[in-house]
Known about the structure:
By secondary structure, this protein is an alpha/beta fold. The chain has 15 helices and eight strands. The longest helix has 25 residues, at 214-238. 38% of the residues are buried.
Amino acid sequence: MRSAHPDLQGVATRVTVVLHDLEADRALRDRIGPDARVLECRDGIPSPSGPRNVGLAAATAPFVFFLDSDDSLAPACLARLHEVARDTSADVVLPSIRRDGRYVGTPLVVSRRARILDPAAHQLFLRSHVPALLRRSALDDAGIRYPGGIRSGEDFVVMSRLFATARAALAFDAVYEVHDSGDARASVSPLPPGEQLAAVRLVLGSPWVSALPDDRTTALVRRILAVNLASGWRTKRGLGQEPAADEHREVRELARATGPRAEGLLSVRDRVSLRFELAPGLASRLLQSRPFGLIPSSWRGLASGRGPFVTELRSFLVRHRRRRPGASAP
C-alpha cells in the first residue's frame, strides 16, 4: 500500500483499503495510516469480488487501480499509466508485470510506443494476472462489476470483457511487482465440482461473446482451452487434486461450440491435455511434457502467426526486451 503513495507515484491518488470480513479496530487503522480511506466488506464469501465492488462504488476519480495486498507498484507506475491513458484515450492501460524478479511475456508487444492494442493479434487474453488502470466510466457505462458468488476467476470475467470490447493499451515502462510465486496464489483448498470453472462458464454464456468478431472469439476461446482447461487440468493433477471431469467436459464442449477454430491453434501438449479421459500412460505423459508445448497440433497452428511456437517466440522477445537496461523504470 505504501508504494501507491502520491509522493512515490508522481500523480494524485486516493488510497482506499477495503477490509474483507475483518474488524477495523484502532490497531489496524493505525497500521494502515491516516491518509487512506478504510471501508469494510462483510459478505462471508472468500472472493475478491465483494471488496472490489465496494471500492468501485466508493470511487469518484476518473480512473481506478486495484493493488493486491501482496504486491507493490514501482515508483511512478501510476503516473506512467495515466500518461498512456491520456495520450491514447484507452479505457484499460496495462503495466508490465515483474513476478519474483522476472518479467511476464504478455501481452505480445515489443514496442515501447503507446498505442491501442489488438486483442487477438497481441493476445491480450493470455495475460492471467491482470492489474490495470481502468477508466471508471467504461465500467459504469457497460454496467461491469465483479461477479458475486464465485470464489475464483472473477478477474477473468471482468478483464476478458474489457479486452474484447474496450480500448486497451500497454504502458511498457510502468512496472507492477508481484511478490509471491504463482503457486502461492493457487487456492489451497480445492474448489468443489461445479465451482472450478464457474467463471469460464459465466464468460462463455455472456451475450457480448456472441457479438464479437471471429478473430476475437477465437483468441478468447483459445485462452480458455489452453489456460483454464488444459493447463488447469495439469496443474490440479500436479498438486494431487482431482479435477472435476464432468465440469471440464461440459466447458470444453461449450468452448468448442463458441469458437470452433480455436482448438487448431493449440499445441500438441494442450490438445492431449484436453483429452483428459486418456489413461495416464507413458505416451500420454510424454505428449504432455514441456517440449510438446511448442509443437502445433494442426496445420492451422503451423501456418498461423498465432500458433504455439510463434507465440512462445514472441513472448520470449517481450521478456528479453523488458530485461534490457533502460527498458523499464523499476
